[in-house]
Amino acid sequence: MALLNIIRRLHLRQKLAVREIARRTGLSRNTITKHLAEGTIEPRFATPNRPSKLDPFPRSWPAG
After folding, report:
1. Predicted confidence band at 52 (pLDDT cuts at 50, 70, 90)?
2. What is the value of pTM for the model shown?
3. Based on the structure, what is the number of domains in the chain?
4. Does residue 57 sit within a domain?
5. CA–CA separation, 13 vs 3, rounded Å?
6. Residue 4 in contact with residue 42, Cβ under 8 Å?
7. Helices in the chain by DSSP H: which ranges?
8. What is the mean pLDDT of residues 29-58?
9. CB–CB of 16/10 below 8 Å?
10. Cα distance between residue 52 and residue 63, in whole Å
């Protein structure tokens, strides 16, 4: 599970204080406050289409 989702769950569902969330996650209170104030969701980055490292080799291997 993503860290931002954990922070939001601890704050919204379990009603924990920022200080307690900081103690449990090991993050600073400023970081937790920043993430809660932004209200953003964990970003998802698109992976670019890349050629495989195996593309230069033939698909069928010779019987050996």
Report:
1. confident
2. 0.61
3. 1
4. no
5. 15
6. yes
7. 3-12, 18-25, 29-38
8. 84
9. yes
10. 23
